[in-house]
Amino acid sequence: MRTPVDQYVVSRPLYTEDSFTENHEKVERKHKTTLDHVKQYFTCDSKRVKNAALSLVPIVGWMKMYRVKEWLLGDIVSGVSTGLVAILQGLAYSLLASLPAWYGLYAAFFPVIIYFFLGTSRHISVGAFPVLSLMVGAVVTRMVPDGGPTVNITGLEGLSIDDQRAMVSASLTFLIGIFQLGMGLLQVGFVVIYLSDTLVSGFTTAAAVHILISQLKFIFGLSVPGFSGPLAIYIRNIFTQITSTNIHDLVTAIVVMVVVFAVKEINERFKSKLPVPIPIEVIMTIIACGVSYAFNFKDNHGVDVVGLIPDSFETPVAPNIEVFKETAVDAFPMAIVGFAISFAVAKVYAVKHDYVIDGNQELIAFGVSNIFGGAFKSLASSTALSRSAVQESTGGKTQIAGILSAIIVLIVTLAIGFLLEPLPKSVLGAVVIVNLKGMLMQMREVPYLWKKDRLDCIIWIVTFLASIFLGLDLGLAVGLGVELLAVVFRTQFPRCSVLANISGTDIYRDRKDYINIYEPEGVKIFRIPAPIFFANIDFFRGKLLDAVGFNPLRILRKRNKALRKIRKLIKKGELSVTIVSPLTLTHSRELDQPVDFSDLPVQVNWRAELPANISVPPVDIHSLVLDFSAVSFIDISALKGLKTALKEFIRIDVEIYIVACDPYIIEKLKSCSFFDHEIKTSIFFVTLHDAMLHILERHPPLSVSEKNNQVFQREASDHTISRS
Asked: Could you tell me which residue, 723 or 600, shows the higher pLDDT?
């Protein structure tokens, strides 16, 4: 008879870990030592050199497979579209960094060239990122404030305020690149895994609020110094000058925001029908430049405009070492944030287009990009989701689109940059604010997180509030600290459970969740759903005692005290022995050790009623099963606590079984002398069902008549030990 495909029947022996090892030979594997890994790391051959070269210069790999006929046109259209957006965003984001507008154009050119050769993502658009620009701006305005004295740094004397800020920004960008390159060479790209999506969401939402408020001075046309401290002080400065609002700036910004927002919604709604998104920011910029030039907004209405844009690049400069010393603490979180955002965006497109990105190589690529860009006074670079979306949605297939966008920036900078000089800064501020929509809409995640995972919701809220009130750098640190505490909390206080068999199956689940379950009398199955280590071993022991309903150490002490009392009564002749009921015994004389019957002519049945008003708490289980299927490791401190807990149960005649334990944990237990004459390797079973079948074989379930007979025997238990 053929078995249905939705069922399976297995006939096999019942396995302990020992018997399974005896019957199934394991492959002998040589485990590498630390010395072996070091030797392998420094071993060099032609194949490894070739692979290393290809990994360091990924362009060689994807250029071999470039499909000219299929991809080139899409890359050209994408490069032109992305270049236009990059120009506008570069101008806008340089305002966030409190720098002259053209330094944002440098960020859309120099880093892109390096990333073209070294980057592994084919779709991200490298350049200025608003959050990173704002963090740079906070450092720049702290070191070179608008009105106050400049930080005393050698090399900045005699320079204008713009040149001083450009030098600080360039040195900071250079240092960010050094940190990123160092992490890439040390292969620590995995560091971004500690920045969860929840933390990044809360952080970027707070950054969006910072960015929004920082642009208000351009929207209202106010002369407010840039801020690097508490946000409340900056807001106060804005509202104390609100009566000085330039109405032309305000109206221009509102019109631009309304039109750009409306067209962006049209782009999103009809993106499947539009061949390319409508470049509304570029269109509005051109219109604003024309109107500003025609009506001479700068002279006639006092509108602050972009102003002079040099028609050449500045000569490269060496970074200022003293700036390094002042900004090292700030540069490291910026390096992490810049890489984390770019890597997250790159992963989205890598999954969508089915190729692999290398986190360590991305660190190297951005590190060299920022070092190269910093030498040319470029703003710190990362990527922006909106700009990368333009590059991908307009048909970009490779970083050829990126290099073409850099060429567009080059043409604008060297040839037609003067056409952007009458552009009002309020237009750039409006464009920045409209592009914050995606980050600000992340606030909608809070109700969802509160319903689904309150610990994640707390991480989001704490990161957001800390970043708002303490600043982005401290806010990120606070958020990371809370996130790590949450991980510790989850592993230190996991949800332990008592399992039961789902009737008619070999499946075991939490007994609170199901109706048709089977729990053998005298058996407890306790599931441990986390690693066991020094911080949670006491928690597990407490949960285990709650599950079984008694404290084995307390019962052991009670039994030893009862035995002492029985000895005294027999010695005085107040007790006489009539029948001996044999039990399995051990030997010791300490209260915390197994009871000792060696000098008595009787073995006490602790499950029966005791004479002479001697009372010992009952133990209603004979077997305790620990499910280790979710235990990934045990440290030395926890191992000692686990051993003590198991012995406490064994010494009151409760059989212990450990099931589904990782073989490597068992090997560790053996190497740490975990096993002795009380705790043996035979307590380990391959599966939970194996252990349950073994228990039912040793302790068959009683029939109704046997249960009634057992009750009768308990009532007549005076025949075991009677009072004389």
From this structure: 600
